[in-house]
Write a structure and sequence with these properties.
The protein has 13 helices and 14 strands. A 7-stranded mixed beta sheet has the order 2-10-9-8-5-3-4, with helices on both faces. A 3-stranded antiparallel beta sheet has the order 11-12-14, with helices on one face. The longest helix is centred in the C-terminal third of the chain and has 21 residues. It has 355 residues and is α/β, with parallel strands linked by helices. It binds pyridoxal-5'-phosphate. Pyridoxal-5'-phosphate binds next to α3. The site of pyridoxal-5'-phosphate has 13 residues, from α3.
């Protein structure tokens, strides 16, 4: 079986081999060498001069942590356009924050003007945005949104790039993103269980003043330990080995070539969609580069289609997230997939569409 769902995605044998290397102490010199050794390449990928922190948790740990570290007594604005971004409002409230949802219809992007209208009300500490909403295949215009947030100097911008990280350029420092976070099992094609994030100086200054940060996701703890090339608590060392191996892959291919490969494989899927008379769930100009959410305008039996794909070809794609089940299906081109892999998948999709 091969996974083409938008996370977790297929993990290469090479990555798994790295994951299974013998254990070392997390306060040992070997660990510090491992941790310190990957920092420069992580910073290059994050396009930041800030340290990149490693959290042994899934992305939600840091998504919750960002709220607890950056929202003091002010409000949180959660931009909502799909399952993951909608959930963030609930998470903010569970952290005891006063949170406001900027909700747009599923399938639509978040626009800068809408963010400005909300922030103009005043009293906000934080805005959360999901760059690539995995449930709907929508990519929101992050540069446009970041420019608007910059008009409000007291507001910190938190961006989730779980399904877009390393797929296309996302210049954290240049855009003025305060927290950029991602997870291991999607765009990075590693096993689930690790989250990566970087925080701006402004974000760290805010965190230092905020009460109730807790311990496990306290950004200040991460910063302190970072000075010695360590994490606050025992990390999943296996993930860090896998990450080192993945960085070797990424920099061997070349970051620009990796971006170009995703652009190309994404265009191949788009061609398939058009050729087969399907429509896109996301509007033109706001479509994800790492997955395609296909609208089932033809009214096919999605479950039957996916069943055939799995039985005949051993490929698994996703039949639509939550309320979009059966109304859409999603095809991932994240991670290591080459044009040849995607061509093979598309041929299998063709075959499975026939009775
Ligand atoms: C999958 C996903 C998450 C949640 O990740 P977990 O690893 O389950 O915590 C958050 N944001 C986006 C955009 C995702 O695709």
């Amino acid at each position: 079986m091969k996974l083409f769902i938008p996370g977790p995605i297929q993990v290469s044998d090479k990555t798994f081999e790295a994951f299974c290397r013998p254990m070392i102490g997390h306060r040992s010199g070997d660990f510090k060498k491992l941790y310190g050794g990957i920092q420069p390449r992580l910073q290059q990928l994050f396009q930041t001069t800030q340290p990149v922190f490693l959290s042994t948790s899934s992305a939600w740990g840091v998504m919750e942590g960002a709220i607890r570290n950056l929202a003091g007594t002010g409000k949180v604005l959660n931009c909502m356009c799909g399952a993951f971004s909608d959930k963030w409002l609930d998470v903010s409230r569970r952290c005891g924050k006063e949170a406001v949802g900027l909700q747009v219809e599923w399938g639509q992007p978040i626009r800068g003007e809408q963010v400005r209208e909300q922030l103009k009300q005043g009293g906000f500490d934080v805005v959360t945005v999901i760059h690539n909403e995995t449930s709907t295949g929508v990519m929101s215009p992050i540069a446009e949104i970041a420019a608007v947030v910059a008009e409000f100097p007291e507001v910190r911008l938190v961006v989730d790039s779980v399904s877009s990280f390393s797929v296309l350029p996302l210049p954290m420092d240049e855009l003025g993103i305060d927290v950029l976070l991602t997870g291991s099992q999607k765009a990075l094609a590693m096993p689930p269980g690790l989250a990566l994030f970087a925080a701006s100086k402004r974000a760290m200054e805010r965190a230092a003043e905020v009460k109730g940060r807790g311990y496990y996701f306290d950004f200040i703890e991460f910063q302190k330990n970072q000075l010695e090339d360590m994490t606050p608590s025992t990390p999943s060392i296996s993930h860090i080995y896998a990450l080192e191996s993945k960085l070797d892959d990424i920099f061997t291919e070349g970051v620009a070539a990796r971006h170009a490969r995703h652009e190309h494989t994404n265009a191949m899927v788009h061609e398939w969609v058009k050729r087969n008379g399907f429509e896109f769930f996301a509007p033109e100009g706001y479509r994800s580069k790492s997955l395609t959410c296909v609208a089932n305008n033809r009214g096919i039996d999605v479950a039957g289609f996916l069943g055939k794909l799995k039985e005949r070809h051993g490929f698994i794609i996703d039949g639509g997230y939550g309320k979009l089940k059966g109304k859409t299906f999603r095809i991932s081109n994240m991670g290591d997939e080459t044009p040849a892999d995607i061509a093979e998948l598309l041929a299998a999709l063709d075959d499975s569409l026939l009775s």
